[in-house]
Amino acid sequence: MRRSDRNRLCALLATLVAFVLACSPPADPPPAKLGDASLDREAMKQAVAEALVISDTLDRIDRITDLMRKVDAGNVEGAMEAYEAAVDGLDRDEVRLFANAWARIDPKVALERFAKWRAPRVGRSAISEVVFFWTRRDGAEDARIFALESLGTDRPEGKTVRNLVVDATVEGLAAAGQHEELTRLLSSFPADEGRRWVITKALLQFYRAGTAAPRAWVDSIPWEGDNALKIDALQTALVSLAGVDGRQAAQWYETVEAKLPPGSFLEQISETWGARDALGNLEWLLERPDSKGRHAALRAGAYHYLRQDGPGASEWIAARLGDPRVDAAMRYPLTQYLISVDLEKALASAERIQAPGDKIASLKQILVMWSRRDHPFVERYMAEKGVPPEVERAVRGMHAVRKKQLKQADAIAGEGEKS
Description:
- By secondary structure, the protein is mainly α.
- The chain has 21 helices and no strands.
- Helix 6 crosses helix 7, helix 10 packs across helix 11 and helix 18 (324-339) packs antiparallel against helix 19.
């Protein structure tokens, strides 16, 4: 995964975590008792069929929910017949309600039937709900094995469905707080982007119980476990937490920092924390030991600060450029900001950039812009300062293009006057 993609994923995860924390109830309530008002098979079939065609979304879901609380072993087949007759027009929420109700009665039978549905999109949602419910009710291993065996591994859609089963199992284990089972399952997968995505799903379930719940699971994972699960889970959890509570993430990081390679995860943490508290992020990063990771994190954090408060951030960074580590990481972002507000200050800053690539890029931008208003000055500057050849070519190339454009514009204007 490219760095930009990973950073976008980090930002998305932090947003999702904030949403989950804001919307989550204090605890997962016990399952409601179903079948309180008995309907026979035919009555249930007719009632569900009528409910599924109600046009208003809220009224339809309310009616279906009420009926699903009355599903029992004697009428579940009637509900299934009504759903199967309308399956092509169903949405996922309607199906998940029925899947949840059937899972309370017999999850194995429910999985067998949903696996054979002719509408795979809603069928997958139903399978996911059954596995999720079954897993939360202490049937994690049975649910996962039975689901995989029922669905088969040879069908073209097998991989998608199998991933769905794993996702639902992981979410169920997290929701039930089954740390050891969750660790055992995730440790069996290789450390790749697929597993990191599943870890994210688990963390979102943990966050429903508050910010302490994800840490409790991650801290329980052995450092020497299979497929480096500890590192993957720790990174994902720290980065997501940094987007919600940077100080809490920082305190957690400090407790494990000595066990990690220098600078681990700091850039990703900076991307998420910096978006919410740019200055707090930078102040904490300056206390971390020097490393490539910290250098990248300071650079990312400087961009966030400059975007949020350009004048204040530029003053804060400029006051600390005497520190070689700050100069190396933050002068380039500072120069980029200055280009938009003061070319003279930007040029003075660009001259002192240490990284050759960053310096060349900045000089190109500045001198090309300056050339538009005073090309002779830029030529004198390049002759006196001895800028890299790439900069000279860029400046003169753009100047030649502008001259050609002006000449063409004058020619068109002249033709217009003659006519």
